[in-house]
Amino acid sequence: MKRYEGYVKVYWLQGAKVEMKEELKGEWVKWEDVPTWISVDDKMPDKDALYLTYAPSSDTRKPLIQCAWYSLDAPGWSGLASIWLTAITHWMPLPVSPVLREEE
């Protein structure tokens, strides 16, 4: 992606804020609308939902990147083996679901 005065040119997005549509390719969007990993040290999710999570492993080439549920009731992650739940270092909202074409 090219960056220009706070905007990026979209070639591929897995965005939470920017819809994944073919017509966005080559368009300029605000840099802050491009999703990035959020450190659990900086911020935790503010609503109950499924999120994409990142946990490093002993083999740096093979981190665990998987969906996990975050709950505000008893703040924390669930849906993975407990060893991975305590290892989560980053998270991001899930991308927008793809738009499926109806079969004719």
Characterization of the model:
The chain is mainly beta and 104 residues long. It folds into two domains: 1-34, no CATH class; 36-96, no CATH class. Helix content is 4%, strand content 31%. The strands form two sheets. Strands 4-8-5-6-7 form a five-stranded antiparallel beta sheet. The longest helix is centred in the last third of the chain and has 4 residues, at 82-85. The protein is globular and about 45 Å long. 9% of the residues are buried.
List the helices and strands and how they pair.
Elements: E1 3-4, E2 7-9, E3 28-30, E4 38-39, E5 49-55, E6 64-71, E7 76-78, H1 82-85, E8 90-93
Antiparallel strand pairs: 1-2, 2-3, 4-8, 5-6, 5-8, 6-7
| Rg over alpha carbons | 16 Å
- List the domain count as a whole number: 2
Strand runs, count:
8
Taken as a percent bin, the fraction of beta residues is 25-35%
Distance separating the two termini:
35 Å
Structure characteristics:
104 residues, mainly beta, 2 domains, five-stranded antiparallel sheet, 1 helix
The gist of it:
By secondary structure, the chain is mainly β.
